[in-house]
């Protein structure tokens, strides 16, 4: 195995000393980059990018060519998993992801089962191909959706403002939702372990919609299933720990509980003060975040000031991976993203002396 040339990201996740605060950006490969749009046009579609290891490798590396980022993230989507379960994923132009066969009746739900992992072989091939292309430059992050976030799309059949079908099931037929979540948790565990086998050096669970649940429901329907996954993951590869990051958007009120499920790092959106968050989780976990992605619409000077504010709020020492609090907007200016990466590297050095 090639030696890692820059392992700052992995060290920060384990709260080991670093020289500066590492940074990567959620959705760092995406439509805000003209080179991404050009590759996507050649591939014909978004899924064309995901299913071709060559294209997936090309777009994964694009942001790293532009910015001195400290990690790469597999180019794929969380919805490849329900697609492999037979729900029929498609992207309607301008409408986001949709499923041909959403889970709406009991028969379909009872028939849901853990899919054969070879249906996702294209993802594992992409991971191996990206690792080879990175040649040890920075670590590669693998990822999956959380069982609950996947269930939201599987039940609603696409994006939703109110999750009315999910909530109807949660409150009137909770056992059906628990069945879906149990299948998802087992599938995600196998899927992430296969990504680790293929070369992923850290993994992140995206719980984008857990924050839409009530206080009690979050623990029962989202957190408990992420805990199951974390307990089932391989935590070492090539003699090195494979850190796990758990990110619940709008999960700021549950930080202590999230920090207790066994992950190495908790992701924060931009609504929580990272200094207070650090005090709440103590030494248990590292923290990732938490720059408002839409602050990239401000001037480079404002971006720098905001980055400095977050670094100061976290304070001295390791255990912080700088990131956006959610995915970068397709309307973001790549020059502004560059200003953020450079500012984080420069301004963070005094916090590691
Ligand atoms: O971070 C990265 O660079 C890795 C790639 C990545 C994508 N999706 C690529 C993508 C990751 C980690 C995801 C995760 C994902 N996908 C999540 C969880 C994180 C989050 O953002 O909340 C969710 C909920 C999805 C589902 C999904 N996929 C939606 C809602 C959409 C449409 C959103 C939009 O911006 O239009 C997608 C499509 C998608 N996934 C795109 C990209 C780059 C845009 C596709 C295109 O090129 O048109």
UniProtKB/TrEMBL annotation:
Domain Uroporphyrinogen decarboxylase (URO-D): 22-31, 141-157
GO molecular function per UniProt: uroporphyrinogen decarboxylase activity
Site (Transition state stabilizer): 77
This protein's UniProt keywords: Cytoplasm, Decarboxylase, Lyase, Porphyrin biosynthesis
GO CC term, one of those recorded: cytosol
Class of enzymatic activity (EC top level): lyase
Pathway annotation from the record: Porphyrin-containing compound metabolism; protoporphyrin-IX biosynthesis; coproporphyrinogen-III from 5-aminolevulinate: step 4/4
Catalytic activity: uroporphyrinogen III + 4 H(+) = coproporphyrinogen III + 4 CO2
Function in brief: Catalyzes the decarboxylation of four acetate groups of uroporphyrinogen-III to yield coproporphyrinogen-III.
Protein name: Uroporphyrinogen decarboxylase
Organism: Aquitalea aquatica
Gene: hemE
């Amino acid at each position: 195995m090639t030696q890692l040339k820059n392992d700052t990201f992995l060290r920060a996740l384990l709260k080991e000393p670093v020289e500066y605060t590492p940074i990567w950006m959620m959705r760092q490969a995406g439509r805000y980059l003209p080179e991404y749009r050009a590759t996507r046009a050649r591939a014909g579609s978004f899924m064309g990018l995901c299913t071709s290891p060559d294209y997936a490798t090309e777009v994964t590396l694009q942001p790293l060519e532009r910015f001195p980022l400290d990690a790469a993230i597999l180019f794929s989507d969380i919805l490849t998993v329900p697609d492999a379960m037979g729900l029929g994923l498609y992207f309607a132009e301008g409408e986001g992801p949709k499923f041909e066969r959403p889970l709406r009746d009991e028969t379909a739900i009872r028939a849901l089962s853990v899919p054969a992992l070879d249906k996702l072989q294209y993802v594992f091939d992409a991971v191996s191909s990206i690792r080879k292309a990175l040649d040890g430059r920075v670590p590669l992050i693998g990822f999956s959706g959380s069982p609950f976030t996947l269930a939201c799309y599987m039940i609603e059949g696409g994006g939703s403002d109110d999750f009315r079908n999910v909530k109807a099931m949660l409150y009137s037929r909770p056992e059906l939702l628990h069945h879906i979540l149990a299948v998802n948790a087992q599938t995600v565990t196998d899927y992430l372990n296969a990504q680790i086998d293929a070369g992923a050096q850290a993994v992140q669970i995206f719980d984008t919609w857990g924050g839409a649940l009530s206080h009690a429901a979050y623990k029962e329907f989202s957190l408990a299933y992420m805990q199951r996954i974390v307990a089932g993951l391989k935590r070492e590869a090539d003699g090195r720990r494979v850190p796990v990051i758990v990110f619940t958007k709008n999960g700021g009120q549950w930080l202590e509980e999230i920090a207790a499920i066994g992950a190495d790092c908790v992701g924060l959106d931009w609504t929580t003060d990272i200094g207070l968050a650090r005090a709440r989780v103590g030494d248990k976990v590292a923290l990732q975040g938490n720059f408002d992605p839409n602050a990239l619409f401000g001037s480079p000077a404002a971006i720098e000031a905001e980055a400095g504010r977050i670094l100061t709020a976290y304070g001295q020492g390791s255990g912080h991976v700088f990131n956006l609090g959610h995915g970068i907007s397709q309307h973001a200016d790549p020059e502004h993203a560059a200003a953020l990466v450079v500012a984080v590297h420069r301004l963070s050095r005094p916090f590691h002396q």
